[in-house]
Amino acid sequence: MGSAFNEPTLDNIPIIHLMTSSIEAKEKVQIIEEVYNWSLDIWNYLKYDRLPDDKMEARKTRSKASRYTIFEGKLYRRSTSRVILRCIRSKEHMNQILQEMHDGECGNHSGGRSLANRISRQGYYWPTLREDAMRYVQRCDACQRHSVFLHHPAPNTHHYIQPSDLNLTSRSDPDLQN
Ligand SMILES: [Zn+2]
């Protein structure tokens, strides 16, 4: 008596599953390292007076660091318009901010560029903010479904609030983890 069904066996499904998650895990590690590194040299220089061994890198770090300062354990950057921006160093925190500003309570599903501008106006900085905002909007389910209606620029409200006014600590969206 042979079965006509070609049922999944323990040999195939779990293997596919494992391969996918190990690739994802590797990508996550790379992203975390990249993000951690963006401010590491500046941090080490300002905090411990330690510069990279490479002379070029050391010079670059010293020149870059002139725009940064550490205050109460946090890194801040002076923008070209001399506004002080809080530097966001972890991918998780970046995702929380993107989520809050795009589809959270004060989000308006604006397009990537407008989202990035909004985040800057709220006082946050990280070097890949623009690219990350674009990517975030591209991945937003609601935006993809209603792209014609939603991608209007955000109203320019000039509404300044302190980063600490936002409740960003308790949020975590599993969809944002990659
Ligand atoms: Zn959206």
UniProtKB/TrEMBL annotation:
<protein>
    <recommendedName>
        <fullName>Integrase zinc-binding domain-containing protein</fullName>
    </recommendedName>
</protein>
<dbReference type="InterPro" id="IPR041588">
    <property type="entry name" value="Integrase_H2C2"/>
</dbReference>
<feature type="domain" description="Integrase zinc-binding">
    <location>
        <begin position="91"/>
        <end position="146"/>
    </location>
</feature>
<dbReference type="Pfam" id="PF17921">
    <property type="entry name" value="Integrase_H2C2"/>
</dbReference>
